[in-house]
C-alpha cells in the first residue's frame, strides 16, 4: 500500500487525523494520503449499477470502493454517476433540466471519446458514452468478453450482438486493445486508416512506439501534402496518424498537474499569514474560487486576487480540479474563514514599482543628479489656480 484515499465528506477531518498519526508511526514507509472529492458517491452506492458490481457489499463499502477508484481511474468511475449529482454549479437547479442533462451528457461523451477506453477492461457504464454504442450494446460487449475472453483485435467487435458495421465505424477509433494481434489497435488510428499508417511506417522504417525515430521522420518531411497523397490520406489525417504512432494510447490527462499528496495534517490553527501552499480548486463561483489546502475549511480566493489581470469571471483563469499555488492572506479562526491569494504579493509590488519607473521615463535618482543632488521640485498647486498665481507672483 502506497496511497490512502480519504473522502472529503462527513468525518473526513477526523479520518485525516487518524491516518496522519498512523503515518507518523511509519517513517520511511513511503505512504501518502490524498483528499478525494466524494460528491455523488452516496448516490452511486445506492444505485442499481453499484448493486450489480458489488452485490455482497453494503452501502458504506460501495462508497469506499468508489472513492478509491476515483483516484485510480477518475473517468471510469465518475461516468457511473449522474453529472448533476457531482456538483456543476450553484444555479444548476434553476436551469431547464432537460437541456442541462443533454449538455452535461455531451460533455461527458466528449471527455470519454477524447481519452478512449480499453476494450478489455472498460465497464458497461463507460462504454455507453462511446460514439455508436448504446446501453444494450455496451452490456453485450461485456457479456461477450466474459464468455469468450479478451478481445484480440477490433474486428472482434463485429461478433458482438447488435453491433453492426455502422456502429463499428463510429466506435472503433475510440476503443483500444493492448497486447492484441494488431499493434495499431492500441492507437487512436481508425481501422479505415490502417493502410495509410502501414505505408507511413514502411516509408519511415519505424515501428509503432519508436517515438524518437518517428519524431525525426516527421521533422524531415518537407512536403506534407505530397506525402499524404502518397500514403492515401489527407494532410490533417497524416499528422494525427504520426502523433498516434509516436505515443500509442497516449492519455491527454498525463499533461495535467498531479493530485496533491499529503503525509501530514494541517490545522487551521497552524495557518499563518504569508504561508505559501499548494491546493486544489473545489468550486468556482461568481466572486471567486474555493481552494482545498488540506484543512477542514476551503479557503476563498477573491476574483480580484486570482490573477494580476482583469477578468470578468473566475472561470476565465481557473476551473474545478486545477492544482494552484496560493498564499495565505488572513485567517479568521473563530468564523472558520481563510482568505487566500493566487497572486504573489512580492511579485506584484515589484511589478508596480517597475511600472512606475517605466512610466516616469527616468527614475528619481537620475532626476536628482540633474538637479545637483536635490530632489526635483514638485508643484504644490495646479497651474491656473489662485494658489499657483500667488506662488509665482515674483517670477
What features would you describe in this structure?
- This protein has 395 residues and is α/β, with parallel strands linked by helices.
- Among the domains are: 1-81, 2-Layer Sandwich (Nucleotidyltransferase, domain 5); 268-346, OB fold (Dihydrolipoamide Acetyltransferase, E2P).
- The chain is built from 17 helices and 9 strands.
- The protein has a 5-stranded mixed barrel with strand order 5-6-7-9-8. It has a two-stranded parallel ribbon with strand order 1-2. A two-stranded parallel ribbon has the order 3-4.
- Strand 5 and strand 6 form a beta hairpin.
- The mean pLDDT is 80.
Concise structural overview:
The protein has 395 residues and is of the alpha/beta class. It has 17 helices and 9 strands.
